[in-house]
Amino acid sequence: MLPLSYALRNLFRDKSRLIQTVGGSALVVLLIMAATALNGGMAGVLSASGSPRNAILIGTGSEESIQRSEVAAQLGGIAEAGIPGVLSALGTPAASTEIHYMSFLEAKDGTRGQGLFRGVTLRALLVHPEVRLLEGTFPGAGEVMVGRLAWRKLGIAEEKLQVGSVVKLDGSEMRISGIFAAPGTVMESEVWAVLGDLYMLAQRDTASCVVLRMEEAKDFSEVELFSQQRLDLELTALRESDYYSALGAFYRPLRVMTWITAGLVAAGAIFGGFNTLYAAFASRIRELATLQAIGFGRGAVFFSLVQESVIACLAGTLLASVIALVFLDGRTIPFSIGAFTVSISPQVAIAGLGTGILLGVLGAVPPAIRCLKPSLPKALRS
Questions:
Q1: pLDDT of residue 273
Q2: Which residues of the chain fall below pLDDT 50?
Q3: Angle at 330 between CA 326 and CA 336, to 5 degrees
């Protein structure tokens, strides 16, 4: 076998080719890492947003969007009384009547952004136990509570959405009473207001849904039975986890397009690598033949050429990993119903490493085979 130092020395024989190989592989690896992180972040936040123990009662025909749903304002009381298996905390049933309302929030400096507003009561904390108040208090009349990532979804500077700040919702001034977290869920991008205030601001006398937290996931059958028996209420029962899974399926084409784009760029880089490496190897045909003449087998020479390419691509992978950690890790990305945080996890790093190795091997094998194909006498005369 040829020593590793031989491959390392050859890398620096043509610095422009080295820069081109490292830069091209870094771009491809960065795109693959970004695609993996983005897809994983979006899928993760949607899967974590729904609990299998939570059941949602919405209006029939609104299964794809709670915002369009309308149910009777008194449905919460009817449901908690008529459905066995609803969790109770200190005698209070975990049944939350909610309004989901898409509108614009305006900061004091006039900047405004669209976000999801959720009208709730204190019972919302019983059905969404992942919600934690970070600062301030639960909202009262004329107040709102913002998720810690709401600023990113709204496109408003974070310092404009601090506790005590005054904002406008549909022309009405509201004071921010608190900031909450709901790690890994879309709720962190929402703004919560008192249910009564949203009835007035949204100019409606119906709620969007009733969310019930059951004692066990299997008790969902009781909610389904209730919705089927109460035909007068025109209800559909959904598991909260199933609702967000359906949203994940809705966004699947977007995630597929991300992969297709990254794949096309990778394919272009591989074909570009073919040309670059063929030109580099072709100029060394006599040298490669000399190595064979002094006793190194064709397989050893082939392995050394692939080694050169892989080392260059791994250098690009290292560069891409540093860029990803500096510019992508921890970045919050908004999408239509919320926002998610990009994480350069071990899985993302492994995807990048695998891509770098694959680029090095695929880019070097065809040029190496072609340059080693001529017979030894013919190669020595070239």
A1: 67
A2: none
A3: 125
